[in-house]
Give the backbone structure.
Amino acid sequence: MSNRSRYIALVAVFLIALFAAGCEPDQAVTGQPPGAKQPEKQATPPAAETMSVTVYHATQDAAFLVPETHTLPKTDQPVQAAVEQLLAGPKTPELVRALPAGTKLRGITVKDHIAYVDFNDKLVKNGSGGSAGEILAVSAIVNTVTEFADIYKVQIMVEGRKIQTLYGHMDTSEPLSRSEKIIKKSL
């Protein structure tokens, strides 16, 4: 091969390499012209944070409370969310609600490890009136709320006031502690 042929071959290789270097790698992959706006990648939405709360519902024979765990979207009001789950009633068909229908939560405040849980008057007016119903209602509230480590006792309130009793059988005028004796761990 002559020097001239080598020179032409070398220039040809140089031009091919220069042409190849001018192509953008994305252009070859996407088929889009240079400078075209790339489609935005779909951002993966953050996984919704959840929390678990345990609430207590009554057995059908009204002898025990059974824990029921609910997974809820995380909130900065977890005690309120738990009480609202208690008011919504059980998801397990073998359990029955411990609080009367129509009962609504008015508010919760926590001070010095005591939760002040305020309900509307349906808690009293729509109750069964029996001692078993009162024990289950009071224990369901107290045990649900004391599931939270920083709450030691619960003061049940109705329409913003302490009440002496729900149905005439239990003293609810002072904050109440958790009762483990009424809990049946499973069905």
In short: Residues 23-29 have pLDDT under 50 and may be disordered. The longest helix spans residues 3-22.
